[in-house]
Amino acid sequence: MLQEFWESKQQQRAAFPSEGVVVYESLPSPGPPFVSYVTLPGGSCFGNFQCCLSRAEARRDAAKVALINSLFNELPSRRITKEFIMESVQEAVASTSGTLDDADDPSTSIGAYHYMLESNMGKTMLEFQELMTIFQLLHWNGSLKALRETKCSRQEVISYYSQYSLDEKMRSHMALDWIMKEKESPGILSQELRMALRELEEARKAGQELRFYKEKKEILSLALTQIYSDPDTSSPSDDQLSLTALCGYH
């Protein structure tokens, strides 16, 4: 049913016209409980939240969660409209120390959020989720802070990254950021990876969208793999790391 749903959407060219594959991933395990993830076109990821005694059961459960969210995403209330933006900004103001006046100032967090929503007018929340995940990751690994120090405005950063998808190149740049952090604070990679795995498991069992947590795990795993598999990567020169990071920030 999940596959048919997305094939139908591709035929209608209603969403993610260039990405038409539903991807399943089962975690290796010698025995139950088994864990399975399903990634939808556009990148949203869901997993089984029940305790599953077989890989097939875990895959079906993950597909069920993804299908429910896919159908829910079709509701009018899940599309970004002027009314949706107004309500979202008001909710953001209520949960922070900001004001409604901040919505017109892109240099503030509320203003940046408002600008991101307006830039994605007409899209569904699953379509908007990929951009949000990119900025969650940029905030998590310190890239946004580095960009602010170069005097880039939030609006410029949003406009730049809105043109790109979360791909292997972006993951590699973020992994290099964490290799730099590991060089400065040995052990931080393993600590962050343990935290990411715990967050991923908790979110999966709660039936939440998982891409942010799963991307964190994959980026940190990539960084550890590069450190332990490539002697040159474990101790690169400061100039090389700075140049690579700068290319990542553009």
UniProtKB/TrEMBL annotation:
<dbReference type="Pfam" id="PF14954">
    <property type="entry name" value="LIX1"/>
</dbReference>
<dbReference type="GO" id="GO:0097352">
    <property type="term" value="P:autophagosome maturation"/>
</dbReference>
<comment type="similarity">
    <text>Belongs to the LIX1 family.</text>
</comment>
<protein>
    <submittedName>
        <fullName>Protein limb expression 1 homolog isoform X3</fullName>
    </submittedName>
</protein>
<dbReference type="GO" id="GO:0005737">
    <property type="term" value="C:cytoplasm"/>
</dbReference>
<dbReference type="InterPro" id="IPR029270">
    <property type="entry name" value="LIX1"/>
</dbReference>
<dbReference type="InterPro" id="IPR051436">
    <property type="entry name" value="Autophagy-related_EPG5"/>
</dbReference>
